[in-house]
Write a structure and sequence with these properties.
The chain is mainly α. It has a single domain, classed as Ribosomal protein S20 (Methane Monooxygenase Hydroxylase, Chain G, domain 1), CATH 1.20.58. 86% of the residues lie in helices and 0% in strands. It is built from three helices and no strands. Helix 2 packs antiparallel against helix 3. The longest helix has 37 residues. The radius of gyration is 17 Å and the shape is elongated.
């Protein structure tokens, strides 16, 4: 355990930021799963709606620095290709 006051503060801040990043990443993964689930259950129409939500969440994660911009672009591209194959 840290003894210095500033080190103790950094531990608290790091824990808070880690939790925030984990929540954002988890939300993005959930939205991606919803696209695949919608395609299996409802078809192209529902998958398109889920794709719009997933794209928005992925973009937000990238803008906050949780996901690298290239990673976000790759994930969006793969989802879009998947949904386009359904159409």
């Amino acid at each position: 355990m840290a003894n210095i006051k500033s080190a103790k503060k950094r531990i608290k801040i790091t824990a808070k930021k880690t939790l925030r990043n984990k929540m954002i990443k988890s939300r993005a993964k959930t939205e991606i799963k919803k696209v695949y689930a919608a395609s299996a259950a409802g078809g192209a129409q529902e998958a398109n709606a889920a794709l719009v939500n997933a794209t928005s969440v992925i973009d937000r994660a990238a803008s906050k620095g949780v996901l690298h911009k290239n990673t976000a672009a790759r994930k969006k591209s793969r989802l879009a290709r998947f949904v386009n194959k359904l159409n």
